Amino acid sequence: MSLGQPLPVLMYHHVSPKPGLVTCSPENFRAQMQWLAKNGWRTLSTAGFAEALASGRVPQKSVLVTFDDGYLDNWVYAHPVLQEFGQRATIFLITGWIGDGTPRPYSGQPGTPDVPTHKQAMAAAADGKLDAAFLRWSEVEAMRAAGTFDFHSHTHTHTRWDRQIAAQAERDAALAEDLAVSRETLAARLGEASPHLCWPQGYFDANYQRVARAAGFTHLYTTEHGVVRADVDLSRIPRLVAKDKPAAWFGRRMGIYGRPLLSALYLGLKSGKKGH
């Protein structure tokens, strides 16, 4: 039985000099992106990723690099690294958390802003002080124009509706509204409605999947651990947590993830659920 060429989908959140949960240092992120560039790996656009799966022809040494939430540090520290090495990634934006204003300086420019830790960013979001921790639309537009990032949905409010509403019908309606506003916001700001959705905190169930498909989402990204192959279920795309590790570690892992049999043996033939 042919396992098919694997296509790793990497999951990042923060690139920041401040250590913390789900954070990669700028030095290690740069080393990882440099490793991909030097070793002939191609970082796909989201459209390129979807096309590869639709055709059933997954090119070797291809990877989708994803970021969740839309933190300010993605602009300040990740964007210039991607630009340096001609790489690209995808950010799943919480569209209701993205603000207005002029682009702030990024690393290498005078006046680089202070970025919060993950814990501080979550506290800022809870207090409604979103601009201190999250992107502005002007920064989103600048990264899109530069070709460093594609932008898709992480819902509009990042709400876990299963924890907020007990009644199934009301919960589904709230999720449908959340997804609709997210797509409308992306369409209004960027000129196209996204077919790609990443679940907040990785939570989903059959009803969530049904509501998302009805809203127009065709590719649903999870925190389930595994590599993508051409026969992947598009309603539950697995990802691999990118750790704050140097190039040597990263290269070893990518060497495993990029090989059909080795990745299957390493990850197990059936991916288990792993929330992050």
Account of the protein in words:
By secondary structure, the protein is α/β, with parallel strands linked by helices. The protein is 41% helix and 16% strand. It is built from ten helices and ten strands. Strands 1, 4, 5, 6, 7, 8, 9 and 10 form an eight-stranded parallel beta sheet that branches. A two-stranded parallel sheet has the order 2-3. Strand 8, helix 8 and strand 9 form a beta-alpha-beta unit. Helix 1 (26-38) packs parallel to helix 3 and helix 7 (168-190) packs parallel to helix 8 (206-215). Residues 270-276 have low confidence and may be disordered.
Keywords:
two-stranded parallel ribbon; 41% helix; globular; disordered C terminus; alpha/beta; single chain; 10 strands; 8-stranded parallel beta sheet; 276 residues
Would you spell out the secondary-structure blueprint of this structure?
Elements: E1 9-12, E2 14-15, E3 23-24, H1 26-38, E4 42-43, H2 46-55, E5 62-69, H3 72-85, E6 89-93, H4 118-126, H5 137-146, E7 149-153, H6 161-164, H7 168-190, E8 196-198, H8 206-215, E9 219-225, E10 237-241, H9 247-257, H10 260-267
Parallel strand pairs: 1-5, 1-10, 2-3, 4-5, 5-6, 6-7, 8-9, 9-10
Quick overview of this protein structure:
With 276 residues, this protein is an alpha/beta fold.
If you average the pLDDT, what whole number results? 94
Structural class based on helices, strands and sheet pairing: alpha/beta
Q: Give me the strand/helix succession.
A: EEEHEHEHEHHEHHEHEEHH
The N- to C-terminal Cα distance equals 32 Å
Q: Unreliable segments (pLDDT under 50, ≥5 consecutive)?
A: 270-276
Estimate percent helicity: 40-55%
What share of residues are in beta strands? 15-25%
Total beta strand runs: 10
Number of helices: 10
Report the biggest beta sheet as strand number plus sense, adding barrel if it closes.
8 strands, parallel
Radius of gyration (CA) equals 18 Å
State the assembly state of the protein chains: single chain
Give the overall silhouette: globular
